[in-house]
UniProtKB/TrEMBL annotation:
The keyword Signal applies. This is HMA domain-containing protein. It comes from Methylobacterium radiodurans. It comes from the Bacteria. Pfam families: HMA.
Amino acid sequence: MRFLISSSGAAALAALLLGPVGPVRAQDDTPAMSRRGSDLKVATIPVEGMVCLSCAASIKRAVRKVDGVTDAEIDFVGRTLRVTYAAGRPLLLGRVRTAIAGLGYTPGTPVVAP
């Protein structure tokens, strides 16, 4: 038996599994950073090979386990990962990329927000 899911159903499922789906807007960053303090940084990492919601959930789970990561959010539509982490941890993004690659996906070069 096959089940078909509409695009609105897929969006609802994505929101349930991953939180907000779609591009993260710049205005979302400012309040979060001020609430959490200036000792945190945010990096966006493109992820190749992420083709389904299960892929995205696996990546999010693995990255949240990396020591020093305080949050990880997936933009499934944009195929990117947004990582919030403790500043002063220069090797952390390398470990995040290793965690992504260990799942079989290809992480791109991180872009760190100023």
